[in-house]
Amino acid sequence: MNTAEDITINGKDGKYLAFENMKILRWKIGDVELSLTASLEKDELLKVAESICKDERKGEKVKP
Questions:
Q1: Which end of the chain is more exposed for a tag (fewer CB within 10 A), N or C?
Q2: Which sign, positive or negative, has the C-alpha torsion 11, 51, 23, 37?
Q3: Model confidence, pTM
């Protein structure tokens, strides 16, 4: 595949590209542009991407 495929990650529009063993996902969360590159299969790469989400706890201090 040499063209981008439209995908959705947690309700956000994104793109999936595959070049032989290299797969790329690109999407935005708010003002942050994200790109994930790996040799994982598409479904596994999507699982990783879906685990990344915006922290909605604005102003809260997070304890380590």
A1: C
A2: positive
A3: 0.75
